[in-house]
Amino acid sequence: MERKYTILAVLMIVLALGLVLVPKKKELKETNPQALLLSIAEKSRYLSVYQVTHRIIENDPTLMLIDLRPAAQFKAFALPGAINIQPDSLLAKSTLALLNEPGKDKVLYANSDQLAEKTWVTGTRYAINRLYVMKGGMNEWFNTIIKPAEVSATASSADHDLASFRMAARLYFTGAGQETAKTAPVQKRENIQVIRKAPEAQSGGGC
Predict the structure, then answer these.
(1) How far apart are the C-alpha atoms of 6 and 88, rounded to whole Å?
(2) Could you identify which of 124, 135, 180, 206 might form a hypothetical disulfide with 87, taking C-beta atoms 3.0 to 4.6 angstroms apart as the criterion?
(3) Does domain 33-136 match CATH 3.40.250.10?
(4) 35-68 confidence digits (pLDDT tens)
(5) 147 burial via Cβ count (<10 Å: 0-12, 13-18, 19+)
(6) At how many degrees (to 10) do helices 33-41 and 113-125 cross?
(7) By the 8 A CB rule, do 155 and 149 touch?
(8) Neighbours of 205 (CB within 10 A)
(9) pTM for the structure as a whole
(10) What's phi and psi for 136, nearest 5 deg?
(11) What's the DSSP call for residue 146?
């Protein structure tokens, strides 16, 4: 009987030492569920294609564009300076280090809103701050900047200002030159840039 208790005691000591010696897995910090729900309810996470375009044209150093589309689409056509990150690698150590870079507004986009929204929720859940979604994604950007609708002669001055901005931005992104875009009579400009040949990008996983 004593031998049995001795063996049990030794096993308990070994297990205890194991728990002490085995390094604890570093867990990701999660946002409080109530705070997450409040964040989702707010609309402040959205940036319009005009806002994004303006910041691109102005070379805003605080802007970080995160392209969530498949790598093939990114290589074929991407916004200038964008980084290609696949959604399934969002919580990878290297990706989190990038997205937690201080002083940066991280703007997520895909072809439409669905994927960017899901990625935003995941990122916000794990306390990635200054995270935004470009409303409408690349589809909205292309239809607004590259193929803008005609503006009637009776449209308001604000509509004409936006039309002027769209024209200047389209020239800027399709190779007409930066000077044309920057000197055009545009008010309330907002960055949007597209590159025919995407820059070297960091890749994560998913799409």
Answers:
(1) 49
(2) 206
(3) yes
(4) 555 555 566 899 999 999 999 999 999 999 999 9
(5) exposed
(6) 150
(7) no
(8) 13
(9) 0.66
(10) 90, -15
(11) I
